[in-house]
Amino acid sequence: MIDPPSLEKMIAEFSSLPGIGRKTARRLAYHLLTRSRGRIKPFCESLKEADEKIKTCSVCHAFTEEDPCPLCASREHAKTLCIVEKSSDILPFENAGIHRGLYHVLGGTLSPLDGVGPEELHIPGLIERIRKLNLQEVILALGSSPEAESTALLIDRLLQDLPVKRTRLARGIPMGSDLEFIDEITMLRAFEGRISL
Ligand SMILES: [Zn+2]
Asked: pTM here?
């Protein structure tokens, strides 16, 4: 049996998402059309609403509906700033309740092969921001892939002349793993045991 064109289109959209293969995409599409028909409209509306409302904070580049984001607005006098790769990496810190300071989202890691150099990341803005803020500590929380390591190295070098303590998360975050998926305990340990640079 061949899937009708509109269903085929739906499957193609699902399978364009990371981690969703064609089989799973097809299962999801069939599931929505058979057992969850009523979910389709709210599902589409939530996508549309997020697409319309979500932007990035002009200060820290986290996802937000307001600019500046609530974190930047409420923590302007914070003494620590945590540098993360992407907006979704903020959540584990907030969930674990370990960091009550500011964040800065780089928007990726250095990856020369994919054409991502320092200019493609929010690094100039970061340096500018740190210069202006009266911070005690900057925490590099960039995961453990080789790209993350070289990004951390570059940022550390750029910050070394500024009068601020530089630390990084302790080892213990599994090699190559994504901060977003780290459990709270591992995150807590890595944060508490952070290392001076
Ligand atoms: Zn912000």
From this structure: 0.81
